Each structure stands twice: as C-alpha cells, then as structure tokens.
Amino acid sequence: MSAVILASGSPSRYTTLTSAGITPQVIVSHVDEAALQAAHPTASVAELAQLLAAAKGREVLSRIIADAALLPAAPAGPRVLIAADSILELDGTPVGKPHTPERTREVWQAMGGRTAQLHTGHFIARLDPVGTPEQPAWQEAGSRTQTASTTIHTAALSDAEIDAYISTAEPFDVAGALTIDGFGGAFVTGIEGDHHNVIGLSLPLARTLVGELGVAWHQLWDMSTQ
C-alpha cells in the first residue's frame, strides 16, 4: 500500500477519501490565500482554484522534504500527496467561504434559484524514499495539476430557509456557502459533472493524475479497514 498525505484540514475531503477506501495522513498547509489571490488579480476563478491548490501542495511538500520525520516509517514505498482548493463562481466572480451569517445571507440571496460553477484545483505529487532507514529522506518524483469544474443548480430559498441554514453554521466554512453532504444537500436541484468535486475532491480526476505518476489507484486502498 502506498500511503497518502492529504494537505488539507477539510473534513469533507478526508471523508471522501476514507469512504473510497483510502486513509490519509493529514498535514494541514499554511498558505496565505488572500495574499495569493491579490498577487494574481487577472486570474480566472478556475485558475485561482488551481493556483491555491498548487501552493498548498507545494508548501506541505517542501516541509516533508525538509523534515522526513513528518512521515511515519511504514508503509514502505512511495507516498502520494493530494492538495485541493475549491471556489464557487457566480457571474464570473469568485465566492469563497462566507465565514459570517451576514455574508452567507448575501451569497444565498444572490445564488438561490440560479446556476453556478464549482471549481476545484487539484495538485498531486509522488514522493519516493531516499537515504537509509537510519536517516530517511524523501524526494519529489513528479507532480500533476488540473482543475475540475462542476455546474450546480440551486433552489430559490425563502428567507426562513436561509435563516435556518445559517443557524446550522454549516455554510460558514465551505466554498460558496454550500455543501451537498450536509444540510445544504436539499438546496441543490441538479449537478452536471462529478458530484465528488462539489464536496472538494474529484475522485475520478485524482485517480487519473495518480496513475500518471506511476501509482495505481487501488494501491492506495487501506484494506486493513475492510
């Protein structure tokens, strides 16, 4: 089994992987998202999602290469690092995590009953072991980046429904004030594309990119949990 590192603290991404038979080690990235976005004022929403995913993956990758102790000794073999970032696009404008009730209400008043696009940038890298058992080390053996986009059709919510959704606090820390794997699932009337992508990680795309790095997707399955 090749171990997987998830460079994200997102519970949804972790659950998506574990539900697919993969138990990742989580190493949360430290990237100033606002600063990166400010540094790329002409980037499209899809491009911005990819820039953020790559920055988060590269940040964790550099820490692992600098400090091999971040990864446990077992299992042997290569590791696969997965980073992702999701941004909702509405009318050509990025809609990030609202964080507050006021902003959540604004988003849903603008988005309800309409169509939006959810872009998730993916960064996947392979790390190969080098050095000795006494002095382990890791080196990058390649990486891939790609953005997956999914079209989302939303319901027109009443003020009471928006207030109720706000009271759950669920939409505060998710892209576009919306997630389909919780209370918000009832407010999505249709999806065109990979539904996993809306949760924050496209499994079909991840499988393709991992395969391009010379690792078969099924090698990542944690059969000990079966």
From TrEMBL:
Gene3D superfamilies, per the entry: 3.90.950.10
Compartment(s): Cytoplasm
Active-site residue list: 85 (proton acceptor)
Coiled coil: none
GO MF term list: hydrolase activity
Domain of life assignment: Bacteria
InterPro entries: ITPase-like_fam, Maf-like
SUPFAM superfamilies referenced in this protein's UniProt entry, alphabetically: ITPase-like
Reactions catalysed according to its record: a 2'-deoxyribonucleoside 5'-triphosphate + H2O = a 2'-deoxyribonucleoside 5'-phosphate + diphosphate + H(+); a ribonucleoside 5'-triphosphate + H2O = a ribonucleoside 5'-phosphate + diphosphate + H(+)
Family: Belongs to the Maf family.
UniProt-recorded name of the protein: Nucleoside triphosphate pyrophosphatase
UniProt organism field: Brevibacterium otitidis
